[in-house]
Every structure is written in C-alpha cells, then in structure tokens.
Structure prediction request, 452 residues.
Amino acid sequence: MRFVVIGAGPAGLQAAQTAARLGAEVVLVERDVIGGAANLWDCVPSKAMIATGALVSRAHRAELLGLFPLQPEVDLQALGRRVRDIEQRLVSSWTDQLEHQGVRIAHGTGRLAGPHRVVIDHTEAGREEIDADAVLLATGSYPRIPAWAEVDGERVLSTRQAYPPPVIPERLVVIGSGVTGVEFVHMFRSLGSEVSLIVSRQQVLPQKDPEVASALETDFLERGVQLLKGARAIGIDSGEKSVTVRCDDGRSVEGSHVLICIGSVPTSDGLGLEAAGVVRTQSGHVPVNHHCQSNVPHIYAAGDLSGRLPLASVAFSQGHKVAEHVMGLHTREHRHLDYDKAASAIFTEPEIADVGLAEAEAFALGRKIRVTKVPYAANSRALIDGDWRGFVKIVSDPATGVVLGGSIVGAHAAELISVVALAVTANLRVVDLAESLFVHPALAEALAEAAE
Ligand SMILES: Cc1cc2nc3c(=O)[nH]c(=O)nc-3n(C[C@H](O)[C@H](O)[C@H](O)COP(=O)(O)OP(=O)(O)OC[C@H]3O[C@@H](n4cnc5c(N)ncnc54)[C@H](O)[C@@H]3O)c2cc1C
Prediction:
C-alpha cells in the first residue's frame, strides 16, 4: 500500500505516522515546515505568547498572594526566540519520529495529476511523479483577508504576522470577535497594548453560550478593552503613524496597528482536484464522508480542508482515522468521530472551554435538560491560587442523569474540560462524576460538586 499525504499539519502528520506504523509505504509532502500552520503560525505560537501574557497578568496580581507589586516588562526579542525555539523543537521531534517510522519526507509542493498520480515540485529543485494507492489531502487553510484590506506586515497584520509581532502595538484594533480574535485581544492586552475590538454582532464569540461570552466581555471591559458592538469593518485608512478602521455604522476607530481575524480559507487552489475528479464546495472545502473520503473513495481530505471543525485536535483524530481506514482497519470495531463531542477551548482570561450540548443550544432545540452550576469562588483551590473568576456548568439528561455537555469559564478550563469530555464520550452519568474521588484541594472538585 503506497499512501501519499500532502500537507504535514496535524492531520497529515498523524495520518502518515499511523499508516507507517500499520505497515504502509508512506510519502509525506510538505512545502513549508513539519507540523504545519498549527506549529508555525496558529496553535503553538499563539499559546506560547499567551503563556507569557498569563505570567504578566499573574504578576499584576502578586499583591493578592502576599508579594510586593511586580512590574514585569516584555523582552520582545527573547519572546520571539522562545516562540521559534518551541517550533524548532517540535519540528525536530516530529521529523525524528517520522524518519524512525520509515516515512519518506518530500520537501516540496504536491498536487494530484490524476486519480492515482501525485506530482511533487521539490523545494530544492526538480519534479517527481509518483503513483499512489491512496492519497490524503491535508493542506489546511490560510487567513481570510477582505478585499478592502491590504496587509502590509507592518501596521496592518494578518494572524500570520503576529508571532512575534514587529513591535508590541501601542494601540491595537482587532477586527473579528471569534475565537482567534478574542485570544489576540487577551494576548496583546496582557502584553501591554491598548486594545479595541470590533464585534460585528451584539456579543463576542457569537457561537458560544451567552453566559460564557458575557463572562469574557466583563473581563475585557474591566481590563480596559474597548468593545465596538454591532459594527462591521468596511475599510482601513493607513496614515504615517496610525491606521483608522471604518465601520458600516459610521463609527471609526484609530490605532497604531490593525489585526484582521475574520476566519480562514481552505488551501485547495492548485491541488489538481479536477485532474483526479475530486469535487470541492464553493467555499473551497473538499466535502468528505465519515471516513474522510472525498467523492473519489481512495482520495481522502482531513483537517481544515475537510470543512469540519477547524481545530488541530480534530485534525489529529481525523488523520488517525484516515490511516486506519486506508489500512482496512475500519472492518474491525471502528468508531466514527463524533464532532458534536469535540472539546474546545479559548485561551483567554478567564479561560473558556466547552464540550457537547450547551445550555443555550438545548433551550433553542426545546430539549429538556438539567443544568447545575458552581462558581469558582466556592472552590478552595481557586481561592488559594488567588483567581476565583468563573464557573463550571454541567448539562445532563434529567431522566437518565447522563452528562450531555459542560462549559467551564475560569483558570485551567482547557485542562478541566477533558474530564467532562470523557464523561460525554463514555455516556457517564452525573453520579459517576460526583462519586469520583478527586484530589483536594483541586479545581476539579468543582466538577464533582456541579455534578451533585
Ligand atoms: C491563530 C490561530 C490559533 C489556533 N489555535 C488553535 C488551538 O489552540 N487549538 C486547536 O485545536 N486549533 C487551533 N487553531 C486551528 C488549527 O491551527 C487548525 O485547525 C489546524 O492547523 C488544521 O490542521 P491541518 O492539518 O488541516 O493543516 P495545517 O496546520 O494548516 O497545515 C497544512 C500544511 O499543508 C501544507 N501544504 C499546503 N498545501 C500544500 C501543497 N500543495 N503541498 C505541500 N504542502 C502543502 C502547508 O504548508 C501546511 O504546513 C488555531 C488557528 C489559528 C488561526
């Protein structure tokens, strides 16, 4: 079985490793770095900078923990080195693993030249054509830039120019209040920028539970973030030392820099889809079935290209499932990915994480649920750590007690949600959570309490 994978982000990387372990001859084609956009521009660098910002915010609360006030200063050069160092470590670790497993890494740009034929334009030089029994397209996505904006990498930035930024912006205007936008607001505010956020609807994080979104808005307002709600950006005027973003309601906001965070576009141009008869949607995604197969059964798509949940965690899992399917393991007990049960997190302050059915969603569906909520302020560990903002909310079925979902707002929410995710995936009941013997004092105790 020769399996060719185009794109070495989370989906491609995982598929290549799993298929090689299962005995396939694997060629992994990557034109940039192993680890993909997730490693170079998205998850890894953003969370690395947020970790630095978190330490700054914690230092600002030093007096709460009995210290004299601390005033840390950001060393942008050192921060940049740290971000690149993490990226390099991950690249070498993944490259070593791939080589150890016998995956052939081809540095270059791949495309389909027919249903079973892949062309690789090598980065160094030369072109190669190889036959494949199965192909995975895992080429990811890139930032969406509106026609009225021109990204110059100096004052007008896309998310790809923010790690590290050329300077810590004095006054940053962020366009877009989805997950990426709010994470950037939090990150740059923590690092010292004045921040304005353009929110096209009446709530930040429009897809999230309103109570969760409102907790974040409260924090932003307390930290001096300016929220322009109900405003859609329609233009950017660049001056010598400043930029002004114009909105459709006549308002405008000036800053030293603008960051555009309005979503992403799948990387499907130039992939040779037509040559292989693979269809794509108008938005550029390659639609797939529950095995991640495109309309051409031996050509798969996974990760952001597949138009499912655009998360690295989902891409990793899809890659794993694709490899199993390619190697025929789906005939054994094979569970499809249930995207409705994917946990996700937003690395703001307070941190936000959720999984499964949300309270607002159940209400909209007219579904009967039981909701229990416990504030962090009632948890001893939160008080000990000096950060008791937030709450834990568990949604369950009133008839059976089965945990259907949960939302956590507060410190370490991204870690804690895994417990709820496990409960949702394994159909555990609230009593199972309530009777688990968690550590004391620990934030996880709030989960057991919310489940009582
Ligand atoms: C700012 C930001 C922060 C994020 N943070 C998180 C997070 O914390 N957690 C999370 O789960 N998700 C996060 N995401 C989403 C996550 O980054 C994506 O869902 C994930 O990277 C998708 O993985 P992928 O495998 O589809 O491809 P990608 O990571 O996009 O990688 C695709 C790879 O394919 C390569 N490629 C493309 N075309 C070709 C070609 N023709 N030939 C060869 N190679 C090619 C590219 O060079 C790239 O390396 C974030 C996104 C953004 C924008």
Q: What stands out?
A: The mean pLDDT is 95. The radius of gyration is 23 Å. The longest strand covers residues 104-114.
